[in-house]
From TrEMBL:
TM stretches of this protein: 20-39, 46-62, 82-112, 249-268, 280-304, 589-609
An example Gene Ontology CC term for this record: plasma membrane
Subcellular location: Cell membrane; Membrane
Annotated signal peptide: none
Gene Ontology molecular function: any one: ATP hydrolysis activity
Domain P-type ATPase A: 130-229
Record's protein name: Heavy metal translocating P-type ATPase
Record has Transport as a keyword: no
Length: 634
């Protein structure tokens, strides 16, 4: 049949056929049923039966093939085969019209399911549409068009006003306003100039810019978003896996009961064989678990698609379900609750050192580190045009700081615990306490037994932090901060943000222990972080949530959920979406079971429904639970 429709003489192209195959088959099935009905009314029984058979073949052949494939390959029964058997059984006892209506409505239900599931895939296609196909490459002063797959890291591309940005990269020349709603969810344009990062798929405003490519096409932010959404949609949550396993067992039970239903009533209740077989066919239809099977995945897929539109990427449906039960949200401090761009506030030298001398030593020691605090100190030295020496024998002291030599003298930089035999005077201790009370992080610089000085760092808390924490509290969720920073700094930040509990001076392994302790005390825990040191805690949490823009690759790889850019404002949205998804799934399951029980009861008690009514009730409930799940697209 497909060959005929796809043939050169057919008016339907292959593309249209593939896109609308289910709808075309359903419509053709209905037309054949109507013509068969008319033939019966005009006393043409041979033509009537021939047309009914054709309707059965057109509307049911695909489902019959799928059902037989499941039976042969997986040695299992599914609802497709049950429906076809029920239709053939009805025809065998002379109920041709009833069986044909069953085939038609089952085919219609499949077409509607296909259409409904198509809606959940539109977000992927819309994201794919954001990726430009070509870029204007600048080479040796000349421009030429190339496919984005040809771009390499370091290439220079020109983005003119109104064009899609062709690759993730850094602006090297020009100024413009960039519309980044596809990445950040923020609809106001962001002003960008030289040195600022731009993302593939976003829209350039009024200015022309030159961009140095920083990532190949397959690793851009938009490409990762598409990959993660596809990955999430392909992964089935445990509830769906259970239902699918249950479907096979349940289908066998339905067949066994139907056989008993055929054999026993004629012997025990004096029913006619025709009536018994007819009722058994109705039972096969109304007891099939179509609606139950469709109660979960459409809702999960719709929820994942909705979240992706808002910049929240779930790596699988299981994480959307887990986040709905979260009792505690734990925040890392730096880069999560705070901006993650610490600045040097105070430079306090001792031992007759000058500020310049202390800064020169500290910046030299920190010059090879990528830690935000190290970068902040080095940046100040560069701005003051201080000469930075090259350290030797550099060693990272895990979670504490670093040690290195400059001109053969060993120095230590880091937390108080990095100091070995260094004596701190009472006056210095009081000074440190006052600085930490102000919420500043104190960095100690020492050599031998001498404390050379202190440098304080402060990271500004994000403007929305207290609002998000307040929203989480209103939702009945406990908020906790885990940080490697000092007790006094942690207290200051937690008070500003309204955090209920905080744990300070934690090493990465201690963060993991705290997450486990919170899980055992309160229940499921969500951990939000962005750094390498957060990765173990993200893995230990019930739901690990990584900040996408400033987050390290290992944190993003470890996490279950990724927040595109730093839109932590979406945490309450994600939890509410998870809760809505769970609620819709439960509603769907209760509704599907209730409809099935009602129809089975009506069939047994006095034969109060016929086959078409049973089909409408059964398939109607399947379509309704699918449409119910699609509410989550809103």
């Amino acid at each position: 049949m497909e060959a005929a429709l796809n043939g050169p003489s057919g008016g339907i192209t292959s593309e249209i056929w593939e896109k609308h195959k289910a709808a075309i088959v359903t419509a053709l099935c209905l037309v054949l049923i109507i013509i068969a009905y008319i033939a019966g009314k005009n006393n043409a029984p041979v033509l009537e039966i021939a047309l009914f058979i054709l309707a059965y073949l057109v509307g049911g052949y695909q489902k019959a093939l799928e059902g037989m494939e499941t039976l042969v390959k997986e040695k299992d029964l599914d609802v497709d085969l049950l429906m076809v058997v029920a239709a053939i059984g009805a025809a065998a006892i002379g109920y041709w019209m009833d069986g044909a209506i069953l085939i038609f409505i089952f085919s219609l239900s499949g077409a509607l399911e296909e259409y409904s599931m198509e809606k959940t895939g539109r977000d992927i296609r819309s994201l794919m549409g954001l990726i430009p196909e070509e870029a204007t490459l600048l080479e040796d002063g000349r421009e030429r068009k190339v496919g984005i797959g040809e771009l390499r890291v370091g290439d220079m591309v020109i983005i003119r006003p109104g064009e899609k940005i062709a690759a993730d990269g850094i602006i090297t020349a020009g100024f413009s306003s960039i519309y980044e709603a596809t990445i950040t969810g923020e609809y106001l344009p962001a002003d960008k100039e030289k040195g600022h990062e731009v993302f593939s798929g976003t829209i350039n405003g009024q200015g022309a810019i030159e961009v140095r490519v920083s990532k190949p096409a397959g690793e851009t932010t938009i490409a990762k978003i598409i990959h993660l959404v596809r990955q999430a949609q392909d992964e089935k949550p445990p509830a769906q896996q259970f239902v699918e396993r249950f479907e096979g067992i349940y289908s066998k039970a339905v067949v066994a009961i139907a056989i008993l239903f055929i054999l026993l009533p004629p012997l025990l209740l004096d029913w006619s064989w025709q009536e018994t077989i007819y009722r058994a066919m109705i039972f096969l239809v109304v007891a099939s678990p179509c609606a139950l099977v469709s109660s979960i995945m459409p809702a999960i897929l719709a929820g994942i698609s909705n979240a992706a539109r808002h910049g929240v990427l779930f790596k699988g449906g299981v994480h959307l379900q887990n986040i709905s039960d979260v009792k505690v949200v734990t925040f890392d401090k730096t880069g999560t609750l705070t901006i993650g761009q610490p600045k040097v506030i105070d430079i306090i030298p001792f031992q007759n050192l000058s500020e310049t001398g202390l800064l020169q030593i500290t910046a030299s020691l920190e010059s090879h580190s990528e830690h935000p605090i190290a970068r902040a100190i080095t940046q100040v030295a560069i701005e003051r045009q201080i000469n930075i020496s090259k350290p030797t024998d550099l060693q990272a002291l895990h979670g504490l700081g670093i040690s290195a030599k400059i001109d053969s003298r060993e120095y230590f930089v880091g937390k108080k615990d990095v100091l070995k035999n260094v004596q701190i005077s009472e006056e210095q201790a009081i000074q440190v306490e006052n600085l930490e009370t102000d919420g500043k992080t104190v960095i100690y610089i020492a050599t031998g037994e001498r404390l050379l000085g202190l440098i304080t760092i402060q990271d500004k808390i994000r403007g929305w932090a207290s609002r998000i924490v307040g929203e989480l509290k209103q939702m009945g969720i406990k908020t906790v901060m885990l940080t490697g920073d000092t007790e006094t700094t942690a207290r200051a930040v937690s008070e500003q943000a309204g955090i209920e509990l905080y744990y300070a001076e934690l090493l990465p392994e201690q963060k993991v222990e705290m997450v486990k302790q919170l899980r055992s005390t309160y229940g499921k825990v969500a951990m939000i972080g962005d750094g390498v040191n957060d990765a173990p805690a993200l893995a230990a949490a019930s739901v690990g949530i990584a900040v996408g823009s400033g987050g390290t690759d290992i944190a993003i790889e470890t996490a279950d959920v990724i927040l595109v850019r730093d839109n932590i404002e979406n945490i309450p949205f994600a939890i509410n979406l998870g809760r809505r998804t769970q609620m819709v799934i439960k509603q769907n399951i209760v509704f599907a079971i209730a409809v099935a029980l009602t129809l089975v009861t009506l069939n047994f008690i006095g034969g109060r429904i016929n086959l078409p009514e049973g089909v409408i009730g059964h398939e109607g409930s399947t379509v309704l639970v699918i449409l119910s799940g699609l509410r989550l697209l809103r």
